Amino acid sequence: MLDLLPDLFDHYLDKLSLLPSTFISYGGESLFYGEVVTVGCFEDNSKVKWVLSQAGKGKVLVVDGRGSSRALLGDMIAKSAVKNEWEGIIIHGNIRDVMCMRALKIGVQALGSNPIKTEKRNRGEINIELEIAGVNIQPKMWVYADAHGVAFSLKALDLSVLNE
Ligand SMILES: O=C([O-])CC(=O)C(=O)O
User: Which Pfam families match (predicted)?
Assistant: First the structure.
């Protein structure tokens, strides 16, 4: 299965909030979903690095870069996320090492790329409520992503109905 969002919206239109931003899929997996973990940060990806060094099976990290221009994710941090079994990473901001990302078995979506990394000064917050492009995002919500974009739901949706 490579397309998820069209069927998901056919079944669950009222339960989903689609992010209006245009994300680019950079990871080796274009379709991914899971329970939301959040980070909010500005020009400092210390918390992104720390969170992705923890166990992530069934989870997707959603990062609000709050208008940061420097890269909030690179290949080393993404490799650590793969090792720790994260399903995916969604960055409302930029990433780097974009060609390496394609080889990694993980979903990565971001607004764009920037070759310069941030300064790690341990600033930023983990598991806070985010407001991205008018969509309220809370930890433990569920997120679904594919080439069509990124959509959130309050609870996990039953995907078995999509094959009916
Ligand atoms: O360390 C960083 O900020 C980003 C990076 O280059 C990597 O993850 O490889």
Answer: RraA-like (PF03737)
User: 107: domain CATH number?
Assistant: 3.50.30.40
CB 129 within 8 A of CB 136: yes
Radius of gyration, alpha carbons of the chain: 15
Residue of 43, 75, 91 best suited for mutating to test ligand 1, as the one with most atoms within 8 Å of CB? 75
- CA 49 to centroid of ligand 1, rounded, Å: 8
Encoded tokens for 96: 């780097």
Residue-wise pLDDT tens digits, 104-131: 999 999 999 999 999 999 999 999 999 9
Split into its structural domains, the chain has a count of 1
The residue whose CA is least distant from atom 8 of ligand 1 is 74
Q: Is 130 part of a structural domain of the chain?
A: yes
Contact 107/85 with Cβ under 8 angstroms? no
- Does residue 159 lie in a domain region? no
